């Protein structure tokens, strides 16, 4: 098990942890998951969600702040600044963010791919996960249990949950694919999470995956992951194609 959730990306891309975290948050801003005026979790909460120090979080927020996409105020919550003018200006500086490659594909293609990739990850994780990895997943689940009324914060914790399982699967190619596929339709997932009962349902599905991993049961882990992704697909499709 990697020492932290960013070990893989740091190794293959040779980026600092603050740059990796900044890229993930920027992706959520450009995709529309994080919207103008949204409050970000505190530095401590972001550090817990992503398995990094408060100093790393502070550095990442500083990088994003340099683009003008967040407003950091001492003694107050950090807020997202997402206007069309800012996005257009930042698109020139961050062209890879302005047009997320995965969003060019259709819903069915993406979720068929997610099911293939993440079911394989779940099977591998069931065989390879160690006690440290299980403890980290338990911490994330404990955080998610408190976020039933915080859809944006829950989505951040959700990304951390899937990322950590991919880390435990110890396959760089599968991990990279799963990370890219996760970005698809994040703006629609925000609408889904805002509906009554959706966060609780997703949390219960995460619990089922966690229990299977605790049992080191590859078949159960694969089934639980597929059930979860089927649910994600159905609820996302209902919003994208009402």
Summary, kept brief:
Residues 15-83 form the HTH gntR-type domain. The chain is mainly alpha-helical and 242 residues long.
Could you describe the 3D structure shown?
The protein is mainly α and 242 residues long. It has 2 domains: 7-99, Orthogonal Bundle (Arc Repressor Mutant, subunit A); 103-240, Four Helix Bundle (Hemerythrin (Met), subunit A) (Up-down Bundle), CATH 1.20.120. Helix content is 71%, strand content 2%. A two-stranded antiparallel sheet has the order 1-2. A hairpin with a 7-residue loop joins strand 1 and strand 2 (79-80). The longest helix is centred in the last third of the chain and has 23 residues, at 218-240. It starts with 6 loop residues before the first helix and ends with a helix. Mean pLDDT is 85; it is low at 1-13.
